[in-house]
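Hi all, long-time lurker, first post. I run a small reading group and we've been trying to get comfortable going from sequence to structure in the token notation. Rather than ask abstract questions, I figured I'd post a concrete chain and ask someone more experienced to write out its structure so we can walk through it together at our next meeting. Sequence below, copied exactly:
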Amino acid sequence: MIKRYDVIIKNGKIIDGTGNPWYRADVGIIQGKIVKIGFISGLAKKTIDVSNFIVSPGFIDIHNHSDLSILAVPNCESNIKQGITTAVVGNCGISMAPLNSKKVKLFQKYLAPLLISKYDYKWDWKSLAEYQEKVKAQGTAINLAFLIGQGTIRLAVKSFASGKSSEKEMKQMKEILAESLEDGAFGMSSGLIYPPGCYSDTEELIELGKILKKYNRIYVSHIRDEGTDLIKSIKEAIKIGEINDIPVEISHFKAKGEENWGKVNYGFKLMEEARERGVEVNCDVYPYNATSTTITSVLPIWTLENGVEEMLKVLSSKENRKKIKQDFITGRVKGNNLDEDGFGQIVIADSPLNKEYEGKSLKEIIKLKNRISDPYDAFFDLIIEIKGQASVVKFVLSDEDVKKVISHPLSMIGSDSSGICPEIGGKPHPRAYGTFPRVIDKYVSKEKILRLEDAIRKMTSLPASKIRLPYRGLIKEGFWADIVIFDSNKIKDRATFANPHQYPDGIEYVLVNGEVSLEKGRLTNKRYGKILKP
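-- Answer (accepted) --
Happy to help. Here is the structure in token form:
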């Protein structure tokens, strides 16, 4: 009996996500799932002829922040256009839930540089389950797999207090984490350069890891330092996983600052040795030589102990300014080289309160203000002027290190970005638009350090297996039909640091749960995504 399919994808060159060589076949889809791979002669509501195009599993972005933007940008244009069908969100210790109703304003001000500034979030949820329901009610163009942020948990319990957590506070944090895992979080992330997560010691993270072990969930970490103390920080992440026997993911693995370039090699040696001992440790990477973060993260962590409002008061004090300057001069501010070259390496990406700063380096802004003789004070005045509400791009990475990390078998690809669209403005990091096409164009086609099949594995089945995501990440019968179809000769990122709001070329179709979200390169602006659960 001839089946009637919802969709048949005809004549594609299938790269199935396993790393195996491509093969030619048709794909039949019914009710959102792949039901047949091979020669298909049945009828279909929609037939897509993709002769000579690559048919791949939809890209799974292992390190994404679209939970911060999904309410404002539910069509996830920058994600869909680069082939992302599933995003793992809630990274770097920052998640949109849980919220303590008494501390919402504190949380809002802290997150302001990362949110869509013109959108009213309402802030009418508390738990992860409530936030997921809010997203579900509005709809999402991509699938979302949530992590819970350790920094968000800590803020809900003890605000920005830097002291060691008491037994009572630890009990509260464990209860919140357990509730979030019950709500469907795939694991917990930490952001150990960002307050308040950076105030947590290793023992606190190990204790929370015990809850992850109980639920068999993952620990994902933006490690404590990616510069001078990179190796020490990798060891800490591995220790937390090893003691609790839980999987570990090291976020956006890199070495910041020229003096630290090359340390990724020893970092991989540590990961390989840990895996030999039975620690399931991996990392993710984006294909660019610049980072992106909040402007407040450039400051010493002690300045943020009581939140953004108090930080602005700290910066207004002459005595505090002297202390901060000394911290920079003596190198006590980890990962931030704020000398003359350092000011030139940091570029304002988004500044809601003064759009004229966007795209300019701190060095350029200081020069415009005729403050070259006192650059530190000019920098402090700038932060006060914009109330700490800015994101920045920092050009501090080595191209050779990026190449090394991308090519290593333990790495997978993550954009470290939110789903956005050109209408939001600003000068965001181009990774928001170009991460996945860039890997294929630059590192497969041009530099040839990866086979296309291996690059696809790093974008699909490897991240799916890492977070234990069932029935996604492969072109396989019985799996959900998250599929991206592209021309391997034309796929290319177009977004640049100077002009980031540019969609990539070469991606022809994107299907999310069997429905067409991108057709012949054009967005359908349909919301076929789901909230995924372990």
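A couple of things your group might point at:
The chain has two domains: 59-289+397-469, 293-394.
Residues 293-394 form one domain.
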